[in-house]
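input
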Amino acid sequence: MNETPSVTYRFLYLSTKTHPKVIRLRVRMRDPIAPDALTAAVETTMRRFPYYAVALRRDGDRFLFEPNDRPVRVLRASDAFALNAPETNGHLIAFSWADDRIVLDVFHGLTDGTGAYEIMRTLLYYYCSLRYGRTLPPEGVRLLGDPIPDEEWADPVLKLPDLPAPAPKTLSDALSLVHAAGLEQDRVPTVYSVAIPEAEFMRFTAAHDGSPGTMTALFLSRAVAGLYPDRQQVIRVSLCVNQRPALGAPAAHGCHVGAAMLEYKDRLRDWPLDRQATAFRGMVFAQTLEERVLDGVAAQTALAKRFIAAKTDDERLALARAVSENTARVQTATVSYVGRANYRDAERYIRDFRTWTIAETPMLVEISAVNGRFVLDFIQHFSSPVYLNAFLAELEGCGVSFDLQDAQPLSLPAVRLPWSGSDGGKI
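output
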């Protein structure tokens, strides 16, 4: 039995019914799902990742992860379920399927997108090997029987010397997408998915001194700026940053994600695209230096200690609301790009791939790169396509081809939380 990493407290108390802290990977396969093969693949996969087979328990004011030897459930996607609930055998991870789709849901306090990709990579290896009767090449896949190094298992933050928490940064208010467009009454979380040919977008970003993440953040910033040329607040997009390299633990399994803040300053407005992209890349470079990333880790740890030190659940919930409100106040939107999925030989069996979660900012753009194309999932707190349309106009104006895939309500499972506080997070 191990006490949960301190960062987990933040995700526990930020999770609510409408904004559950869950990562969902949804893979559409080439052929209908074979349930027996999927169940066998899940069982083998979870034996390879024992640190995800845990139950969340409460001991006074502490939360504990303890081994959970009950099977991880493989459910029909049409069934309503919650994580950490009886229907998922008390696990914080679950798999489901319907027709030709496989879905992985995992609590964000257990891991992040990088960790979820590793789980899916292993699952697809075993599933496709069983489903199609051929053994896929094992290179680059974490397989059962491989030694699990300490680096993969341990929390690298616990091995750091006590890092002094950096002085709090005072950020100006950022433009609110909700308030700017008058969307206060539009409270239907919605996902718009856009596909872009991978090779074409990579050529475009390289030609303009960009990268997929920075270029997406830049296009979004330009789109918002075009809608509100007379705005007073800054447009500030946060780009998610993998903290593992700075922590010296590239294989760590937990949640290790920070952010680089990209401000679309007024002076950038009249610059050519490649110069704007260079400016954004410079901001990312400066904020991903090891010492800056470790500053972010120290700030997250200091915040987590505030959650732990609070005396009651209601105090922790109030702190979570304040954190959420402050994030939404100083950030316009968020962009997340884990990197190319590298599902290797399994990609030949994949038709579509989506990454869903929900952020404190009113819009999160999740970028997936699978099977020769980027899929940008615009995950919104609202249903209006006003910002999506402006973004697509930016792509069109720059000659980047795209295909609007679909629009659908955001669907994520709830997380059953172990308290009886007054917030809507419990079920």
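quick obs: Residues 421-427 have pLDDT under 50 and may be disordered.
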